[in-house]
Amino acid sequence: MTKYAFLNVPAYGHVNPTLAVAHELVERGEQVSYYLTEAFRATIESTGATFQPYQMDEMRPPQGLTANPQNINISHLLGMLLRTSTIILPQVVERLRAERPDCIIYDFMCPAGYMAAQVLGIPAINLRPSYVPSKEMMSRGPLARAQASGSDLAALQEQLDALSARYDLPSMRPMDIWTHHEDLNICFIPRAFQPGGEAMDDERFLFVGPSIFMRQDAPPFELKRVEGQPVLYISLGTVMNNRPDFFRLCFESFADQPWHVVMAHGPRLDLSALGPVPANFQVASYLPQLEVLQQTSVFITHGGMNSTMESLFYGVPLIVVPQQPEQFMTGQRVSELGLGTALKTDELSVAVLRQAVERVSGDPTIRANVEAMQRTVRSSGGYRQAADAITRFAATHS
């Protein structure tokens, strides 16, 4: 029996792709522990893994990544990664030393996993639920305009040097904690969706596509529509969804339209602030997205990678309304690959939303492209391919 330790950050977009992988390893008779915050205990235990708690506040994108994508300060992202490492590493390193796993598997937003593996001399695997920061990706879209001031980088370098010295780690640059790659890096998107993916090392970068695991905490859902009525699904994800202006615009745009609209508005928004719910809408703070997508014709989304991949897994074309830089990249990618369209948040109107839905739902080329990508996504291997690679890696690196 091989022992694996997963380390992740408290963010659904990073946790959800790993659940089926952890469950598959347990089903194969492997021993799996999973380090995460208490809010995720039930979710992790549903996979059969042993839950190992640490304490940390819920993660939110730093302000520098949610502002105008024309002027991104990437030092905000690096600072967030460094802070999570400073918080998590002291809580887990001695427990990992006692546990003595054969392999550490960590999300790229949890560089404490990489650091713990270095401290303990344990082989490590990097997980990426989104893009690999390749040269091509960094040269295009909003990330090409990302900047970091010299003073910001100097301050981060000083903090990183102090943390490295505390654990006797080799010196590294702040950028390394985001761009570091292991000998095995598992990416939960298909290679065709990664900018420049065709040129990336097949052995080192394994693109398995989405890792679908039916969520145990999903509420029951019953679609209440007129038979044959197409479904329009609207969601801005689990983090940046406190947008009453956007949801009111959706009410105005699609009330009395020939759509049954299913809308998730998130837990921080008071539904009464949106006004009366149109008769053709089903609205909730949280919905079982996988179940909804199986019955959806068009998805208006923020462009989070989980939502994007799940939509493509079920063959649903996308209208991306991005909220932060990575999502702008995804909107750009959806448009480039003919899988739907992307809209600018500051240019939304009733006419723009209606026209986008009409075009995406009625364009046979988009439909054909989405069906082709669905086949690509489903043939990428998913969690079984990931588990195969993990067990091969452990067998050769133990």
From TrEMBL:
Q: Does the keyword Transferase apply?
A: yes
The question of whether Protease is a record keyword is answered with no
This protein's UniProt keywords: Transferase
UniProt domain Erythromycin biosynthesis protein CIII-like C-terminal: residue ranges = 267-375
Q: Which domain of life is it from?
A: Bacteria
Q: Which Pfam families match?
A: EryCIII-like_C
Q: From its record, what is one biological process in GO terms?
A: antibiotic biosynthetic process
* Gene Ontology MF annotations: hexosyltransferase activity; UDP-glycosyltransferase activity
Instruction: Give the similarity note.
Output: Belongs to the UDP-glycosyltransferase family.
The identity of this protein, by name, is: Putative UDP-glucosyltransferase YjiC
Which organism is this entry from? Answer: Dictyobacter aurantiacus
